[in-house]
Amino acid sequence: GEQLPAISAVLSGTPAERALDRFLRSHPDLSSEQRRASAEAVFGVGLWRRRLAALLHLPRWEDADPSALLDTLIAHPDAALPRLADRASLPDWLERVLIEELPADAAAFANAINTPGPVCLRVQHAPIDEALLASLPGARRTQHSPLGIVLPGRPNILGLPAYQRGLLEPQDEGSQLIGLLLQAQPSETILDFCAGAGGKTLLLADVTQDRATIHAHDPDRERLSRLRQRATRAGFTSIRVDSLPSTPCDRVLVDAPCSELGALRRGPDLRWRIDPATLDTFPALQRSILDDAARHVRPGGRLVYATCTIRRAENEDVALHFERTHPDFHREPSPLPTPDGFFRALPHLHSTDGFFAAIWTRRSR
Question: Is the pTM of this model over 0.70?
Answer without folding.
Answer: yes
